[in-house]
Structure formats: C-alpha cells, structure tokens
Specification:
single chain, 8-stranded mixed beta sheet, 32% helix, globular
Length: 440
Amino acid sequence: MGKFSPFETTLWFATAVPAPPTAKLAGRVEADVCVVGAGYTGLTTALELARKGVKVALVEAQEAGFGGSGRNAGHCTPTFSYYSLDSLRKMLGEPWAERIIHRQTRANDRVVEMMSTYDIDCEWVQNGYIMGALRPGAMSTMQAKSDAYASAGARCRVIGREEVEAITGSPRFYGAWYHAEGGHVNPLSYARGLARAVIQEGGQVFTGSPVEDVQPEAGKWSVRTQGGSVLADKVIFATGAYTVGGWKGLDRSFRIKKVFIAATQPLDPETRKKVLPNNTTMHDGRGDIYVYKYNREGRIVASMFPMGQRGVDPDYTRQVMTERLKFLHPQIKEEIRWEYFWYGELDMQMRTIPRLYDLAPGVIACTGLSGRGVPTGSMLGGILSEWALGVPEKDLSLKMEPLHKAPLFMSFAPAMRLRYFRMQENRATRKEGAALVPHA
C-alpha cells in the first residue's frame, strides 16, 4: 500500500496566492494580546483585535494556514456538521444555543465582509450548497433541515428532482436541500489573505516559531519560543487539531480524525457544462459523505473520510472516487485522473461544536471545530476577540469551561459512527428500491 503526499504537494499549496512576508519571533516583543496559531480562528481573532486598535502578536509554528485551514476541501457552508438545531438547543441550553446558532448561520456574511474589505483573492464562489437525496425517504430529512435553518434566518429551501438535476447535472437525486448562502474557496489563499490583512491593520505575525510554554511574568504572560518571547496581558490558543505543546493537556482535549481530499485534472469545458454547471458545492447526502465542487481551474475537488482501504491504498481510493463521481454524473465520458491527494486532520469533539477553555486568568483556548472549518473558524474570531476586549463571560457566545481530556472512546467512535451511517443508508436504499452507490 502506498501513502499519500504531504502538505507541500496539495492542490492548494500549488495554486494559492503567495504568503505575505513574515519572520520568526526573535527577542522580546510586548503586546496586549498574544494569539497562538495562524489558522482561521487565530487569524480572524487577531484581525478583529488589530482593527480595533489592540496591539496583537500572532505566533505560528509553521506558516499561516499550514494546518486544517490550508488543507481542507474549501467548502464554506454556514451550518452545523452533525447535530440538528433542536438538538443543539437541548444540549447547550439558552442563551448559549441561540447565540452560537446565530453566529454560525451568519458566518458566511463575515467571510464575505473580510474578503471584500481586504481584497482577498481566494477563488470565492457563492453559488449555493446542495445536499442531495439519493433515495425517496431522505426527502423528509431534507424538509426538516430546511425548515429548521430557514427559521434561523438562512436562505434555503427544498427543491425537487427536476430542479436539482438542472442545477447539478446529476440525474440520481430525488430532490435536495438547497442552501443559497453556501460557497467555496481556495482555503490556503483565504488564510494567507487574512494574514496579510492582520499585518495591514498593524498586527504582528511571526511564523516558524513553535510555542514551547507560557509562564506568568510581572503580572502578565510570557509566551516563549526558541528564538524569543511575547509578553502579553492575555493569551489565546487557537491551534486546533495541530496543537503541539504550548499548554499542558491542551492537545488531549480533542481526538484526531483524518479526512482526505483529492483533485482531478481540469475537466473538459463540455463536461463542465453538464456536471455542476452552476458551480455549486455538492454533498451527495449520505452519512458516509462525498462532497465535491470545482476550483478555479475546473478541477473537481472531492473529499471523503478514510475507511478500510479507502484513503490508505491510493489506487483503490482513486477507483472509489472515480466510480462514485461517474455514478452521480453518468454523462462524464472522459478519463478521470486524480492528480492531487492530501490529508487533513480534524479536532473532533463529541458535541461537534467548538469548546472554549478557561486555562488560567487571562489565558483561554478554543478547540473542537470538528470539521466545519472555514465558516466556523471565521466566526470564532469575533467571539475570542470579544473575550480579549473584556466582554463578560456571561455575554459570550460560547460558554467558558475548564480544560478536560476528550473521552477515550472518541478515538474510535467517529469511525464506528461512519460505518453505522453507511450500513443504515445502504439498508434504507435497498428497501426503497433506489440505486446503490458503487463501493457502498
């Protein structure tokens, strides 16, 4: 069995806009707030603070967007990845549930505002998101989802078989949930654009500077790297799934789940007229997901979770992804070549929403985005910056909680849940007489 390519050979690394010039942290720097981690969460936090005149230093172990923010599939859909809105209300209680629901469902507004304000070139397309129904019985789920999100202010609706085929080009779906506000990006270009915006607003961005520890010093906090330190009143950890050291136990507050992404060759213009002609983001509706869309070059960029050989054996994985794509779009006649493969890592929480940890007076951390990175990371900057600006804990959109270890079962529960979803979907599909996807 072969192994997939590292980050340096991903599609986004090959096609993203150049990163802004940055340097390693050297010597002593003083700031009001030190943000650790230059993914979307850290970048938007630093940006929100810098544009309000706060002296902020952003410290990153690698480069801006190196982790999940530069490795994801580029989908930007302002929804929650697993729990229904009603389930979140029961789980979180009020006012927390309504606050985070509002932040998440309006997250793409923040994405668009930042892109527009700072002229971020990141292949942004906002032509909607479609979750398809591959069997008739799935339509009731689509209707319930649409009703819930529409009541929360989302521009969405259920569409029938003819309309979903007209929008996507696929004859396989019995209908779908259409979310008009969904979009997609080159995620690494977006991260680099945010880093440039932080610098433009007067923030300092230090890369290649892993944080070794954080210690109290003169009533403040000293954030130390091998080459220097930041002395700050407040510290925010926003390192997500790529947390390595920095604060004891933070890397055990979540469990890693891998996802893989692949990109085809640029498809023929005639094929692109028939396959996703509106350039929407497409989710095939199965619990064992297959999500895909185009990049600027006309490549299909698709993502799935590893399972068995899939995601481990490159040849088998290419076969699975090709056969799924051609099942959904039988009009594709050209050979499909998956020219890029790469992995990302998700910081999974059982609740699949971010957790806000009170590490010490003046020090917090946020982890557990659980795979809904682009819109979620973009809206979290608003919450974390509000904390840094002194908004009372009771008025934040996430409840502060003590740091704790993720339960051991989270190491295997997501994979088991994925297999359960697949088994359940296959059973229902056979019972309803619908066509079963290849390699189901």
